[in-house]
Amino acid sequence: MSEIKSYKDLLIWQKGMELTQKTYELTKTFPNEEIYGLTSQIRRSSVSIPSNIAEGYGRNSNKNFVHFLNISKGSLFELETQLLIAKNLGYIQTIIEDVFLLIEEVGKMINSFIRKINI
Are residues 44 and 81 in contact, defined by beta-carbon separation less than 8 angstroms? Predict the structure, then answer.
């Protein structure tokens, strides 16, 4: 197994980055009038997920890391809700099941990571 030398080595951070990229691609098709509304909210929520994982990793205590993982989890729930709103508004025309599966996977990984740290 490879040694973790940086937050970039964490699979949970890598999955968060993948989710962010997919969200940005998805929001490219949103109406221009949403650029400062839902598009911005979705993008900020997605960016917050790997950002908080990285920030928590950079803190020098497990307690702080768990705190930032919980913030990351909150951003994940925000993102899911915002994507459901976009779908209900008809902004998402294509099937985005892969994005929702990735959201579920990242959520499970965050929960598992929190449990592992708290042991």
Answer: no
